Amino acid sequence: MCIVTGATSGMGQAIAQKFASEGAYLVLSGRNEAKGNALAQSLPHSIFLAGDVGKAEYNRELVEKAIQNFGRLDIVSLNAGILGLGNVIELSEDLWNRTLSTNLSSIYLLAKFAIPHLKKMKGTILINASIAAFKSFPNHPAYCASKAGAVALMKQLAVEYAPDIRINAICPGPVDTPLLWNSAEAFENPKEAVADAEKTTLLKRLGQPTDIANLALFLVSQEASWITGTAMTIDGGILNA
Question: Which InterPro entries does the record cross-reference, listed alphabetically (predicted)?
Answer without folding.
Answer: NAD(P)-bd_dom_sf (IPR036291), Sc_DH/Rdtase_CS (IPR020904), SDR_fam (IPR002347)
